[in-house]
Specification:
Number of domains: 2
CATH topology of the largest domain: Cyclin A, domain 1
Radius of gyration: 19 Å
CATH architecture of the largest domain: Orthogonal Bundle
Strand order of the largest sheet: 1-2-6-5
CATH class of the largest domain: Mainly Alpha
Strand content: 5-15%
CATH superfamily of the largest domain: Glucose-regulated metallo-peptidase M90, N-terminal domain
Number of strands: 6
Distance between the termini: 35 Å
């Protein structure tokens, strides 16, 4: 199967036809997509194919990026922009896939001007104007409650107006003041919870920076929407308005 999808996407045809059995095999690993009604599920598939035509995948350290991996990443990357549009990911093409977590060398200068070098073990990283780096795990090895693809692509959305600050460009119908208050208050409260070593719905990594709080909250919005809604209702409402999706209430809306 490896390479079949690449050949299909390279053909000069308006839409690639991916076998239904392949879609189903990939989507079984992504049960959080089940909140989407049938029409939106098909739109997500169509967007994933368009995404794959536009982006270039590379396996790090000789890792074989299979058709299933590419489709899985594409579906997850397109979920946040299903109602925003793929133009949000314009200006870059590269996606580098690692077999599990990986190490990035870092350099940090302290207050005395001394440079410190260290190896940072990460699951992913998004570069402004550059590629997205993501780890891929076998199904039984994936970290629980973490979605590195949604996390890193949330960073890409955040970078649309420069830098990573937890404040992506908002659509015209949204209030910058309401966003700032919702996320600012929630971030402050969350950092207090982490400092006091309380159990938290969000990964404690969200306390590292407002940009990480936005990315981790975006993960939770899709993976654990009820938990996010209960814990940080104003953040949930802002994300629902931004992503123009409402996974916590999807069953009520579709009648399922």
């Amino acid at each position: 199967m490896f390479g079949w999808l690449r050949r299909l996407l390279a053909r000069p045809q308006p839409q690639a036809t991916v076998p239904e059995r392949l879609w189903q095999r990939v989507e079984r690993r992504l049960p959080f997509l089940d909140f989407l009604p049938a029409a939106d599920r098909q739109r997500l598939r169509d967007m994933a194919i368009e995404f794959l035509r536009d982006k270039q995948f590379h396996g790090a350290h000789g890792f074989a990026v299979t058709d299933e991996i590419m489709l899985g990443i594409a579906l997850q990357a397109c979920l946040p922009v299903l109602n925003i549009g793929l133009q949000a990911y314009r200006g870059w093409v590269g996606i580098v896939v690692y077999p599990g977590d990986f190490v990035i060398p870092r350099q940090v200068m302290d207050e005395d001007g001394v440079m410190h070098e260290y190896d940072d073990e990460v699951l992913g990283e998004a570069w402004e104007g550059g590629p997205v780096l993501v780890s891929w795990f076998d199904e039984d090895e994936a970290p629980e409650g973490v979605n590195v693809v949604i996390h890193e692509f949330a960073h890409k959305l955040d970078m649309e107006n420069g830098g990573v600050d937890g404040f992506p460009p908002l659509p015209a119908h949204m209030s910058r003041k309401a966003w700032s208050e919702a996320f600012g208050n929630a971030y402050e409260r969350f950092c207090e919870q982490v400092d006091e070593d309380e159990d938290t719905v969000l990964d404690p990594y969200a306390a590292e920076h407002p940009g990480e709080f936005f990315a981790v909250a975006s993960e939770s919005f899709f993976l654990d929407p009820h938990g996010l809604l209960e814990t940080f209702p104003e953040v949930y409402r802002q994300l629902a308005a931004y992503y123009r999706l409402d996974p916590a209430h999807a069953g009520e809306q579709t009648g399922r």
